[in-house]
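Extended Data, panel c. Modelled sequence:
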Amino acid sequence: MKAKRSSKHNLIETHDLTKVYSMGETEVRALQGVDIRVEKGEFIALMGPSGSGKSTLMHLLGCLDTPTEGRYVLEGQDVSTLSNDERARVRNRHIGFVFQTFNLLSRLSALENVALPLLYRREAEGALQRASEALSRVGLEERTTHRPAEMSGGERQRVAIARALVVDPALILADEPTGNLDSTTGTTIMHLLRSLNEEGRTVVLVTHDAQVADFAHRTLLMCDGRMV
């Protein structure tokens, strides 16, 4: 049986994506045959109760884990069976991550934090210039030398978005990007993500907040490891 061909318009396709975790003698089916399609340039919100499988799906979409069964196609490439090193290369070249807890290194300046993905790619030449441009894109050109402890929560999240942008990713994955922010700051962050999407970047975010989900083109609902 031939594998299905990917649509040239889809950035993401999953086919019967399944993830089973073994906990002693117990098996936990975190994902149970998930099929999704995300077109290039879409803005998708992923919602569902705790334990619905959202985080597991985001880990798979971010190439941080591999499925037990099924296929995940990213930009036309089946990444389901790649090795750890191969998945790391895909993450570093195609995906930008924005986390609820920012995940910035406290000892580094904003500029140095943003440049890190380029250094991991062994692209040191011009890295600080590109990091500076990314910080300017999120309105932090005056904060390049500040460390995370010297910035507000909203500024730290903008640094995290700049870090995601610096590799010019095809896909931005945002996991509860407003979860640690007040409502006003959270709205500012969502306007920024939407503006990046309007420039053509594909955004997939996890949220529990219906107002945050309203920024997306469409919302996918999960329950018990399935799309509903």
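The longest helix spans residues 183-198. This feature is highlighted in the accompanying rendering.
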